[in-house]
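Honest question from a wet-lab person: if I give you the sequences of every part of a complex, can you actually get the arrangement of the whole thing, not just the pieces? Trying it with mine:
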Amino acid sequence: MSLRNIGIVYRKELTDSLRDRRTLISMIVVPLVLMPVTTIGIGVLTAKIIGQAMKEAPLVMALGGEDSPGVMEKLRRLKTIHVVPARPDFANLISDKKIRAAVEIPKGFEEAMGRGELPTVQIDIYQGELRSTIAAQRLEQFFRGLRDAEVRERLVARGLSGSLVKPFEITEKNVASPEKVFGNTFGALLPYLVIVLCLTGAMYPAIDLTAGEKERGTIETILCSPVGRTHLVLGKFLMVLTASLATSALATSSMAATFLGAREVLAGLARDQSNTLRAAVHPSAILAIFLMVLPIAVLLSAGLLAIALFAKSYKEAQSYISPLMLLVILPAVVAVLPGVELNARLALVPVLNTSLVAKEIMTGTYHWKYMALIFASSCVYAAAAIFLAVKMFQREDVLFRT
Amino acid sequence: MSDPAVIVVRELSKHFRTFRRREGLWGGIQNLFFRDYQTVRAVDDITFSIRPGEMVGYIGPNGAGKSTTIKMLTGILVPTSGEVLTNGFVPHQQRTAYVKTIGVVFGQRTQLWWDIAVVESLKLLRRIYDVSERDFDERMELFNQVLGIRDYLHTPVRKLSLGERMRCDLAAALLHNPPLLFLDEPTIGLDVVAKDHIRQFLRAINEHYRTTVLLTTHDLDDIEELCRRIMIIDHGRLLYDGPLNLLKQKLLRTKQVKFALRDSEQTTGVRALEHTLHGDTLRLEPVDELTYRIRFDRSRISTAELIRQILATVEVRDLLIEDEPIEEIVKRIYAGEALHEANA
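Yes, you can. This is the full assembly:
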């Protein structure tokens, strides 16, 4: 094994890549500019849309209730909704988003209530639609208030205290550190992004350095040089790994910087979350995550290299690699889902294990045993991928596929 | 007894297994489930040897096996059977040590790196081939003189013209002063001036350093200008291996006579000549107003007889007898004609 030769190949590939505008774009410009702009942009946009929807008074149709003028009057006086006259096609109007919700007040509602019967008010909504949900919440709030008032009235009428309805109060207080709260809310996202960025960063150079060489016909010339095939593939692999890590590190740090800069703006937009947004991530957590992601980056770089080497052309390589994207993104997504927790079996599933442990690290919890197990298993997978790439590079039928 | 040859190839074969694709939509679906493999004999049992300082032309139609042979000789491909010994090495077994003793140029692809300046590539190659700085500077000086590459040493390869790139590629291949040079289509796509430049350079290094050169080409002018020996391969088999002159002598069947009439009054005589020639089924082709050409088969009519007939009918100002162009001979060989005569 000659480190010198590997170094020469690595240096050559690095110099070549740095002069290639396409690599520069995929390795530096995209993670540095595009990623933060899009992710933060989507965040800002979502916050804005929700804020806007909260400010509006949604159109709500009241059905029935002619014989309950008291309720209707209170409903109409509500500032948070806008009541429109009843129409028989209300369901279609809700589906078409012409109105956001409808409330069906049964016949003789006030009278029935007075008699102590149990009438039912029905709220019709478009499930999952933001403005409809907001309208429904507001209607429900109104009728709950109405119900509580009615109960209190009845109690008072019978000479009992109104506090009988509410024998005690419930309050919530957060005892988790801001770090943990932040980690739990946003923490799962960061490792996911880091891993996906490792993949996208490695993709272009992996294809260019293998299938790209085949397409340009330069594979013959590099095989004619006095550098062993193992050294060639290792030098190329180091280049792909560099691109992978650089993309990931650049994107994460640029996103962190943008995030810190835009914190005030975001906090202003989504007032409820200002607490968690103020929370910080400890630098050592970021470092630990990068350390855990390192073998995954090795695994992805070597894996991509081996797959791309098999392809005859750039296009073919891309069609092989697209399914791999799913294979990596899926476990990373699973880790983000709430309720999925780390255990010994999941600690052996590549990508998923790292995502899960990184989520824990983000909340400030360090499961040392799991971390060791995950690091070790990822290293084994990474070594296997490198071995595969080296073996592929020795095979004539792979290098010169017809 | 020591073998003086630089390249010794014995019963060399290379077979590839390829899969035969069925045609049409149904064929495409069948291909997914049943693969019909077939063996292609890219190089089939060839034997030859090349002595130091020789410049050998290796020709054949597309897909004949030229490049496969070169790839085996340079250690990129492992032979299916047979032996190769070049510069005392078995190429595919001792590849990294062996390639330090050879230079390779693939005409259509460059070993220089696309986006970086030529001189950076050359410096990197210096490190790869362990060339000392003194030797490097000395050779660069020589390449500047002979190839004139100084002007574009600092230009990225992608901005060079094909001719400029080829000169730089030759410099890269010869940086470590190898005694043996493989050239795969070195003049492909070049203009006449660039071709001439490359040929001059190859002749020069062959004379000065006694560099052995094996070159494959489609351009037979390369062969005529550079090589005394020629090897012809087709369908993986060596059809001819010997001096170019011998091939010409044995296979030259047709010649052409070109003659210019003394003046326009002679045109009436031309019609009479045409009539006489019809008896011998020869055709008179006009080249310009006063010049005509007749191609003829030496086995059917002698040159002397033809000239006698011409001179008997018309008065000529000028007369020229030419051999059949080498392209025509090679075309006939590819068509499977008459090689046994030459090999005999």
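Two things worth pointing out. Chain A touches chain B through 23 residues (CB under 8 Å). The two ends of chain A are 31 Å apart (CA to CA).
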